[in-house]
Amino acid sequence: MFIAQHLDRSAWIFLAILAVVAAVVPAMNLLAAPGSTFHLPTYAVSLIGKYMTYALLALSVDLIWGYCGILSLGHGAFFALGGYAMGMYLMRQIGDRGVYANPELPDFMVFLNWQELPWYWYGFDWFPFAILMVLLVPGLLAFVFGWLAFRSRVTGVYFSIITQAMTYALLLAFFRNDMGFGGNNGLTDFKDILGFNIQAPTTRSALLAASALALAIGFVICRVVTGSKLGKVLVAIRDAENRTRFLGYRVEHYKLFVFVLSAMMAGVAGALYVPQVGIINPGEFAPANSIEIVIWVAVGGRGTLIGAALGAVLVNYAKTYFTAALPDIWLFALGGLFIAVTLFLPKGILGTAQSWWNQEQKQDLKTTNQKEIDQPPTLDGEIGEKA
Predict the structure, then answer these.
(1) What per-residue confidence (pLDDT) applies to 378?
(2) How far apart, in whole angstroms, are the C-alpha atoms of residue 293 and residue 54?
(3) Which of 186, 197, 227, 349 has the most other CB atoms within 10 Å of its CB?
(4) Where are the domains of the chain?
(5) pLDDT tens digits for 37-69?
(6) Which residues contact 7 (CB under 8 A, 6 or more apart)?
(7) What is the model's pTM?
């Protein structure tokens, strides 16, 4: 099978772990009694689901940074746009159950004296349209932005800076009340998704399973891309862009394709994130969020895919733990973790582990070859010939 040939043993193990999490976590929440040792509270299910969306977001960054050398410091913008598309659908599902009981306008629009629904809100009461926008809006922005940047051969730190400028501009725009996206407060107070109560434990478990499925699909897509001839060209662009261009490859086309694909993956992550946390606001566009995503990838291991997902989960778990255990100094503890990884694990957790494993394998092979060289020849063959 075409897909299977791009999946090695580590990939199958990763997919198996996702399948186990998608099955076991909901079972521990829904089937185990509340007083049982194996019971998992609903808030923990939502927390794990949120980690899954972060892992998918980290995959999208690792795809372009680890394999194509494109360091984007604005991927939080694509994540937020996907989240806003899903948030608009969820707001339309509230109907007349809002504070102002307006069947058409969300509460914040009634509060701001909007008289009618803006045209760009049309269609978001239909779930397939919302899903289309989750993919189309981040993808279209990435296409326009990437086409202009790559066509002008903007690379390196300059590309990183303009992606930061892009997400900061969107931050300022979405803060405005007249944009029609809730201003500073954003979109919240969601009720239903696909007709199901968004606060119900069954819905939370379904969202976690959907996040695990999306992460698995995103991982497989990344593996297929990086394991194909396209992936080899991407690595060549990362390592020697000018030489790859001189060989006749249209470098800007390859970079644009992978950048748009990465943005769409980030949009899906944002769409799954919003119903699990219950809010989306302009703070998601903050440039610091995009920088933090890059840190996840660096901690886990750039150019490993699995390491990027692992880094997202570990860093965010550490963030959750430190905010509860060390509320006064959690930022310093988290900063110390990043510094320690940079100093002692420069290739990231998984990248360093793979490097150690390869060194051990080479050392074992070298030892085996040396033993074969040092071993004196036996006379069994000569005796057999004489006989």
Answers:
(1) 57
(2) 8
(3) 186
(4) 4-295
(5) 899 999 999 999 999 999 999 999 999 999 999
(6) 15, 220, 223
(7) 0.91
